[in-house]
Amino acid sequence: MTNNKTLCFQCNKDKITYPCEGCSKYFCLTDLTEHRQILNEELSYVINDYDQFKEKINEQKQNPQNHLLIKQINLWEIKSIEKIQQKAQEYRELLIKSSQTCINDIEMKLNDLREKITQFQKEDEFHEINLDYLRTQLIEIAKEFNNPSNMSIQQNSRSLINDISIISSKKPNFNNWKQNAITVAGGNGYGEKLNQLYAPERIFIDKKKNIFIADYANHRIVEWKHNAKEGQIIAGGNGEGNRMDQLDRPADVIVNQQNHSIIIADQGNKRVIQWMNQKQQILIDNIDCYGLAMDKHRFLYVSDLAKNAVKRWKMGEYNNEGIIVAGGSGEGDEFNQLNCPSFIFVDEDQSVYVSDHENHRVMKWEKDAKEGIVVAGGNGKGGNLNQLSSPQGVIVDHLGQIYVADSGNHRVMRWCEEIEEGEVVVGGNGHGSQSNQLFGPHDLSFDDEGNLYVADYSNHRIQKFEIIL
């Protein structure tokens, strides 16, 4: 090491400095010690990630039957058997019905033959020709009974069940994320300063990685530019109220990047309002709104807490009650009911995914369906892998994997449809403010690189979990 006096990179003073071979910068002894300490902390994070991954590998080796694809195969087997059994029962019932019809016809022919026999006996004038006729008729009826020509079994070349195959690819289907997050917005305690958040409810990430946040308890929508130290108010921020320039507990926000407008679920004011260039327009009034979504056809979806329903409107046509696309059959836990629907997601097929908050499940309602199916949770409130606790934000990726902000369990879960258990992708380490912990997460989103962002509601911050490539 050299000991010439040069400018220290950290304290910016002329001192005897020492180079760091990694970053090629020069530090004085004090700052070099601190620099090494930071590197040691980062190494501990790497070791922690390694240990967690190694633990997963060991668990998979010890319990190969717990592999997610094994569970999918088991479910396929059960569903296939059920389908075969159902079809077999249908064919049995059809055969019994057809067989009974055949027997009834044969009995009628036997009765006719019996009448002829009785007539021959009564008249006592029968001869060989009559006897041959009776024998022939009886043989024909017996053949019809033993070999019914109207019934047979035909093998169909079209498969009754859906075949499956194992496709191996170098690129994994399931993404994973670093378990220690980076705070990218807020994290400075709750408050109304521009570097603070107060119960962030909903987030949206644009292509430039700017973050739009429904800052619920601050009654405002804020935008945090990529790598910014503070946000800027783009809607509300004028105190809690019902004026056109005010918001009251905004629960959700949709950002239209083409015309720079935003649509807000202004929950406290029971209205859906649009802001464009600081001008406001109420789109839907007198609705207990919470979650918003928009499909590729520009239909707007709104969850209605009071009606326990999700409704849909065509853009620009809001002077109606909307069309119910999920729930609407009163509060309950039946498949045609919801109980406090919170956030929603709409896929390419216009299927609606609903976080059924008080039923602790996520429901999927296909387009025009009269009832939904449970795709996550639905086994009561709890912390097991087949349970959810007060689910909030929900996103479905292009592979059909369902990501849920499992608020009451302080974790984000990933579920595959028709699989009974999910898996924890981040959090799940108890509620807290450490970088690997969450406290009542309310929403999640992804950027174009696949990094995962979480609205850490009770920690008043937005956490970024970097994808592991």
General description of the model:
With 469 residues, this protein is an alpha+beta fold. The chain has three domains: 5-66, no CATH class; 75-167; 182-465, TolB, C-terminal domain (Neuraminidase, 6 Propeller). It contains three helices and 27 strands. The protein has a four-stranded antiparallel beta sheet with strand order 4-27-26-25, with no helix packed on it. It has a four-stranded antiparallel beta sheet with strand order 5-6-7-8, with no helix packed on it. The longest helix is centred in the first third of the chain and has 56 residues, at 68-123. The protein is elongated. It starts with a strand and ends with a strand. The model is unreliable at 168-172 (pLDDT under 50). InterPro entries: 6-blade_b-propeller_TolB-like, NHL_repeat.
